[in-house]
């Protein structure tokens, strides 16, 4: 195995320069103006050392990567009771699909598709003001990253509040089935702000350490729960691209439409990559290629 800085430099010089960068998400107007030329990659190793290349210090909208932190909070708050409201099966459908909800009486397939994540946020919110939920979420993320300089981008949150009609449809449908405790506007207000958290790859890779079992990482979640969150990231973290990601990369990962991906090599590394252009499943195109190359060069895989 070559050393990590050499591998990262090689990834930046090949994948990072690729001309075919995918499409930047434009259904949230505020994200449409992000420059697709950005590329950042950061790796924190088990010994605590961190190695980064490209735009690893530039903050981006973490979007659905936030669903991992929200799930960790929800499991801490509700434990296994959460699973009466949301399943643990891959959906095989787009992140914002409503199709399965009717068959499954308003119970979403998993916590990482939008419907499932809205239920998770709703469960933690449980009658509190969105401000309190967001304060708790930010405290969790800042503690995980050991970095108080992590914020919510209000413009991105507002932009999605104005255009998030599909998420409103999902929330109202679930409320109709009795699977949303709070008024949809309240839950979605919290959910849109959660998605609008901004972090750099440097910060996100550090925030992911609690999922890799690093000896010196903040102990935010029990080891048993860490394994389960990783299992869900592996089976559901990339929506209808989850099987493909598992096949190509072989590590649990969670993507967001901002073009970020958090990837965990258990016991070895926490990895964050950012390239805003997306593939057809709404996952970062070059981000996937970058972690595929990283996994191949390092031999990191949960499959032996
Ligand atoms: N905020 C986005 C949405 O709900 C998150 C989706 C994503 O990152 N895949 O549509």
UniProtKB/TrEMBL annotation:
Encoding gene per record: glsA
Family matches, as PANTHER family: GLUTAMINASE
Name of the protein in question: Glutaminase
Domain of life: Bacteria
Source organism of this protein record: Albidovulum litorale
Principal EC category: hydrolase
Subunit structure and binding partners: Homotetramer.
Positions contributing to substrate binding: 64, 114, 160, 167, 191, 239, 257
Family: Belongs to the glutaminase family.
Gene3D superfamilies named among the record's database cross-references: DD-peptidase/beta-lactamase superfamily
């Amino acid at each position: 195995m070559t050393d990590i800085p050499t591998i990262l430099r090689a990834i930046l010089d090949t994948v990072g320069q690729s001309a075919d960068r995918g499409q930047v998400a434009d259904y949230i107007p505020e994200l449409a103006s992000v420059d697709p030329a950005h590329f950042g990659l950061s790796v924190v190793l088990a010994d605590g050392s961190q190695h980064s290349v490209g735009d690893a210090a530039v903050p981006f909208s973490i979007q659905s990567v936030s669903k991992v932190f929200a799930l960790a909070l929800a499991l801490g708050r509700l434990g296994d009771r959460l699973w009466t409201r949301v399943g643990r099966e891959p959906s095989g459908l787009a992140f914002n699909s409503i199709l399965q909800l009717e068959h499954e009486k308003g119970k979403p397939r998993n916590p990482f598709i939008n419907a499932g994540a809205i239920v998770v946020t709703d469960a933690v919110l449980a009658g509190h003001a969105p401000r309190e939920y967001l304060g708790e979420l930010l405290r969790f993320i800042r503690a995980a990253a050991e970095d108080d300089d992590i914020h919510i981008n209000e413009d991105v949150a507002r932009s999605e509040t104005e255009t998030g009609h599909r998420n409103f449809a999902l929330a109202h449908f679930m409320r109709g089935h009795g699977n949303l405790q709070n008024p949809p506007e309240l839950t979605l207000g919290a959910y849109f702000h959660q998605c609008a958290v901004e972090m750099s790859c440097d910060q996100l890779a550090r925030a992911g350490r609690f999922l890799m079992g690093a000896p010196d990482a903040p102990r935010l979640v029990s080891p048993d729960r860490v394994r389960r969150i990783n299992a869900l990231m592996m089976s559901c973290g990339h929506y209808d691209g989850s099987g493909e990601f598992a096949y190509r990369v072989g590590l649990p990962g969670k993507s967001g439409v901002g073009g970020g991906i958090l990837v965990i090599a258990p016991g070895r590394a926490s990895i964050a990559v950012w390239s805003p252009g997306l593939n057809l499943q709404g996952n970062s195109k070059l981000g996937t290629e970058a972690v595929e190359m990283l996994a191949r060069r390092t031999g990191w895989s949960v499959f032996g």
